[in-house]
Design goal:
Bound molecules: 2'-deoxycytidine-5'-monophosphate
Structural class: alpha/beta
Helix content: 40-55%
CATH architecture: 3-Layer(aba) Sandwich
Strand content: 15-25%
Distance between the termini: 10 Å
Number of helices: 9
Shape: globular
Length: 226
């Protein structure tokens, strides 16, 4: 069976990584969460107190990001060999990720690595610019959307599940989702936008199973045509 590249883009908390992981497992493809790479750079900036763009750019040669497959089929992000999967998922790291992702040099640094990972195809990659910048030739481009309220509710639950002892404020999460949407879609460097040839999936009112079924159908059709 011919292997293709699947590019999945969309706003934060649209369930991109869930469907990307499911599809990769279904197709026996490699899954790459590019948001985790921006988050790892954000975490590095927090830890080293790098506030200016120039400081972050100068540190790039010291930042090595890898993914370590886990026995349960998931993978953890490694920052210079350290497993930082938990640390990169905080609101703070997410906000720093959004900021560092606006720096052209950071994007170039990560996009190059992402393109290298896809050279043999058979990959599902999710992010904001995968179908537009990283793999404009991807065999299948999906653009996921859901309403900000639905996404804030999902993120709220995710944060609460991961940090059961911390008080999480839903309104703060919603504000954060809206701010991040704005930044992601209005930045100068590779703003989030739908590729002209992307298939749009609004999953606000779809169950995970319905979404998985729909996307597998689209994937199978695309592979058989390629
Ligand atoms: O998908 P996420 O929330 O984990 O992404 C974290 C931040 O990284 C988000 O604000 C947007 C940015 N990002 C990006 O600019 N380009 C990508 N390909 C992936 C993520």
């Amino acid at each position: 069976m011919k292997k293709i590249i699947v590019a999945i883009d969309g706003f934060s908390s649209c369930g991109k990584s869930t469907i990307a992981r499911q599809l990769a497992a279904y197709a026996s493809y490699r899954y790459i969460d590019t948001g985790a790479m921006y988050r790892a750079v954000g975490l590095y900036a927090i830890r080293h107190n790098l506030t200016s763009d120039n400081d972050i750019i100068a540190a790039l040669p010291d930042i090595h990001i890898d993914f370590a497959p886990q026995t349960n089929g998931t993978q953890h992000t490694l920052l210079n060999g350290e497993d930082v999967e938990t640390q990169i998922r905080t609101l703070d790291a997410g906000n720093r990720a959004s900021q560092v992702s606006q720096i052209r040099e950071v994007r170039q640094f990560l996009v190059e690595q992402q393109q290298a990972m896809g050279k043999d195809k058979g990959i599902v990659m999710d992010g904001r610019d995968i179908g537009t910048v990283v793999f404009p030739q991807a065999g299948l481009k999906l653009f996921l959307t859901a309403s900000p309220q639905v996404r804030a509710q999902r993120r709220y639950k995710e944060l609460q599940d991961k940090n059961p002892d911390t008080h999480i404020d839903y309104n703060e999460v919603l504000r954060d989702v809206n701010e991040r949407d704005y930044r992601d879609s209005h930045r100068t460097e590779s703003p989030l936008r739908q590729a002209d040839d992307a298939v749009v999936v609004d999953n606000s009112y779809m169950t995970r199973e319905q979404q998985f079924e729909l996307i597998c159908k689209i994937f199978n059709e695309r592979v058989s045509q390629s």
